[in-house]
Write a structure and sequence with these properties.
Chain lengths: 641, 159
């Protein structure tokens, strides 16, 4: 079959679905949807349809990015727009199906919004909601919309036309087009993609490799997983275009073993490509022959570094080596190799489908296009977002994320994972592009964005990241291997109240040495979380060191729990719940915590009824309380029902 | 040293090796498949793999110990994994971990004596928006709370 025939068939099938007289039900079934309970919701849909003897087409789609309101279910009835429902539970399904599918009441109270053309009274348009309005979806264009397991859905939505266009051009022209788009590597470093391709194209040799880096190891990042689970062909088309431009014959996708669903969908997608002649020898009758293999990572963060990744593909320990030679000259098995990240590849296919000028119309001067971020942490609307470069952090945190839950105070936003940094409230107007973030001491990174509020201890966060990089250091470079350990020890001392005044300067000094003395970016960026937190939150470090106080009340060694005698009602809940049995008291007696034996687990604070509020957590101060239980004198709170 | 106590271990390993051609870059995939089969990498299996790939045993051992995925002691039938990613960390993963430790009576990296449960912490599952996250075998549980631990794992405090 020629591509035109495949495309015609795909469009016809998609059109038949669009105009189907049966209702269509979509359920977000990416890993995050499943974690939120999409499985039982799907079961409830099937059961209800069977009981009511209704026919409907059910499609499992990827993630549309509204993780905070998962599980998500969309329903399309004939001649009606697609309506997206959030926070769907198995219990609500029978009612929803009865109300909307049978009785034609779309339940605006449950609906989030409508997707695509057409409108519905009382229901907003989904992409006009504050969470989605500032977003521009290029890499994630199909996620949550199409069936990721059906190549025809992708083709019917413009899929593989970018490849067709590329095959009609000279490889050098394709590279020029990518250069013109201004696309830079989305793995974090931001190297211009077209230039990288050109180096590899020009390198002598007939055997060349292309690698897709899907070893998304940054804790707090899930863009690549969502993309591969929601629209694998967008990435695969990009890889084919790259292979053609560079002149590569074989490709590898290096993906974390922690992403089983993404691996499963990739494997299926590769099979479908072979069936349609989009993979193998003489792709679609052209002179491009290309094969793709999947390599599963085995749990080593450092393998996200390109030279370590190549060692791992070759079956060796994944340890980075010095560059030059760069992979474009001597990469996998000594052959010229080009490595790009998942998101970069998905952008490549969009650029070839719609043109470099269109792409470059988004973004800022030096950072073109869009960037996906995994927005998580202490934020109301967690999710996967895609925004034009140059947007401010404030727009992301405030408009898209909907601020901090529980009215808490914003403290920092962490970008770039263990290689990035924490940016404070003073930097909320910072535009999100490669240069601005680097200047502020953080990095763009692959796109993890974790929001931190006043209840998060900044020193503890730095310690957390160092414990991660220290454990993941491959051990090759002395300064990375031992320096991160030294830094971790110092940070642990500070968190445990054993910090010394000179520790801050020592941390800064060791950081400088590690950055200078590490071969790869793991060591080169490992001190960033510490450096930015010292730069912007030095007072918190000083409070830990000088006053032995943790302002966020997180560091266990520096906090204490007390039961306030004027509030305690002597109910005994805390006494019964205390796992280390260090609370004494009796009926109608004020309870007392033995401070010497308390393990500071916080159970007493959790279980003390809100209407009493007798347990408090403090740091850096002692509260005067009786040493032994005394009779309760507090009057019963009148809020008690 | 662990030996081939189960009679069919060799058969199972041969079955795995029969899908491979003996190229050196197959080392990690073979070890992954073997671990999937045996729930850990018995020494005998690693020796056989070395022979099959014509690699020094030290290389097979060196590679397998480099990657966090590989285990050298039998692991439990039920694998409980706790995410320690950034989002999970700031949303209280430490408390969830403590609760699981209490429930199963083991620390991360350990297995219960009856080989029923193993506990591990993982850098990040990439389900950050649903933090904190716990994975039991292949089932992902999001928005975890200490009280959900017992609901999911059952009460194992008597183990």
């Amino acid at each position: 079959m020629t591509f035109d025939e495949i495309q015609k068939q795909a469009i016809a099938e998609w059109g038949a679905l669009e105009h189907s007289d049966k209702p269509r039900i979509f359920i977000g079934s990416a890993t995050c949807g499943r974690a939120a309970g999409a499985g039982p919701v799907l079961e409830a849909i099937n059961t209800t349809l069977a009981q009511r003897n209704l026919k409907a087409t059910i499609t499992q789609v990827g993630c549309i990015g509204l993780c905070y309101t998962e599980p998500l279910v969309d329903i399309i009835k004939p001649n009606r727009p697609r309506i997206c429902y959030g926070n769907v539970t198995p219990e609500i399904i029978p009612q929803l199906i009865e109300d909307y599918i049978i009785n034609d009441n779309p339940r605006p109270d449950l609906a989030l919004g409508t997707i695509g053309e057409g409108s519905m009274a009382g229901i907003p348009k989904l992409f006009e909601l504050p969470m989605l309005k500032p977003q521009v979806r290029i890499a994630l264009r199909n996620c949550g919309i199409i069936d990721p397991e059906n190549i025809k859905h992708y083709i019917a939505n413009g899929g593989y036309t970018g490849l067709m266009k590329a095959l009609g051009m000279a490889p050098e022209t394709v590279i020029e087009e990518i250069k013109k788009s201004g696309l830079r590597g989305r793995g974090g470093a931001g190297f211009p993609t077209g230039l990288k391709w050109e180096f590899c194209r020009k390198a002598p040799g007939t055997v060349k490799y292309v690698i897709c880096n899907a070893d998304e190891g940054d804790p707090g990042a899930f863009m690549d997983r969502s993309l591969l689970e929601g629209d694998p062909h967008a990435v695969l088309e990009g890889i084919l275009i790259g292979a053609y431009a560079i002149g590569a014959t074989d490709g590898y996708i290096y993906i974390r073993a922690e992403y089983p669903l993404a691996i499963q969908r990739l494997k299926l997608a590769l099979q479908q490509m072979v069936e349609y002649g989009l993979l193998g020898d003489n792709i679609l009758g052209s002179n491009l022959s290309f094969h793709i293999k999947i390599k599963e990572g085995a749990g080593a963060f450092v393998c996200g570094e390109e030279t370590a990744m190549m060692a791992s593909i070759e079956g060796k320990r994944g340890m980075p080596r010095s560059r030059p030679p760069f992979p474009a000259q001597s990469g996998l098995w000594g052959k010229p190799t080009n490595i790009n990240n998942v998101e970069t590849w998905a952008n490549v296919s969009a650029i070839m489908q719609r043109g470099a000028d269109w792409y470059a119309s988004y973004g800022s001067e030096k950072s073109k296009g869009t960037k996906t971020f995994a927005l998580a942490g202490k934020i109301n609307r967690t999710g996967l977002i895609e925004v034009p470069m140059g947007i401010s952090l404030k727009e992301i945190v405030h408009d898209i994320g909907g601020d901090i839950p529980g009215g808490k105070r914003f403290k920092a936003v962490q970008t770039g994972g263990p290689s990035g940094g924490c940016l404070p409230v003073s930097h909320l107007n910072l535009p999100v592009d490669y240069e601005s973030l680097t200047e502020a001491g953080s990095i763009m990174g692959s796109g993890g964005m974790v929001v931190i509020d006043e209840d998060t201890c900044i020193v503890d966060i730095a310690r957390y990241f160092l414990s991660f990089t220290q454990a993941e250091s491959c051990g090759k470079c002395v300064l990375c291997r031992l320096g991160t350990k030294q830094m971790l020890d110092i940070l642990e001392n500070i968190c445990n109240g054993k910090g010394k005044l000179e520790d801050i300067d020592l941390l800064l000094d060791v950081s400088k040495q590690i950055k200078a003395g590490s071969l790869c970016a793991l060591g080169g960026t490992a001190p960033n979380p510490v450096l930015t937190t010292i730069r912007y939150f030095r007072d918190e470090y000083e409070a830990h060191i000088n006053e032995k106080r943790c302002p966020a009340l997180v560091c266990t060694e520096l906090i204490s729990y007390y039961i306030l005698p004027d509030k305690c009602q002597g109910c005994g809940i805390c006494l019964r719940s205390c796992p280390s049995e260090v609370i004494s008291g009796g009926k109608r007696m004020v309870h007392v915590i033995d401070q010497d034996k308390c393990i500071k687990c916080g159970t007493c604070l959790d279980v003390c009824p809100d209407r009493f509020g007798a347990v408090v957590k403090v740091s850096g101060e002692e509260i005067e309380v009786p040493r032994e239980p005394v009779p309760v004198t507090a009057s019963k709170p009148n809020t008690e029902a | 040293m662990t030996t081939l106590v189960e009679a069919d271990t060799k058969e199972k390993l041969d079955e795995i090796l029969s899908h491979h051609s003996g190229k050196k870059d197959e080392l990690i995939p073979i070890l992954q498949e073997a671990q999937e089969q045996f729930r850990y990498l018995p020494s005998e299996v690693m020796l056989q793999v070395a022979k099959f790939l014509r690699l020094p045993e030290s290389v097979v051992f060196g590679v397998s110990t480099f990657y966090a995925q590989f285990k050298f002691f039998p692991t439990g039938k039920t694998m409980v994994k706790l995410c320690r990613g950034t989002a999970c960390h700031v949303r209280g993963a430490t408390r969830i971990l403590e609760e699981v430790e209490k429930n199963l009576g083991i620390k991360p990296g350990e297995t219960t004596d009856d080989l029923e449960y193993s506990l591990e912490t993982i850098a990040c599952f990439g389900s950050c928006a649903l933090a904190p996250v716990m994975v039991v075998n292949n089932n992902v549980y999001g928005r975890m709370t200490p009280s959900k631990v017992t609901k999911i794992l059952g009460d194992n405090k008597q183990r």
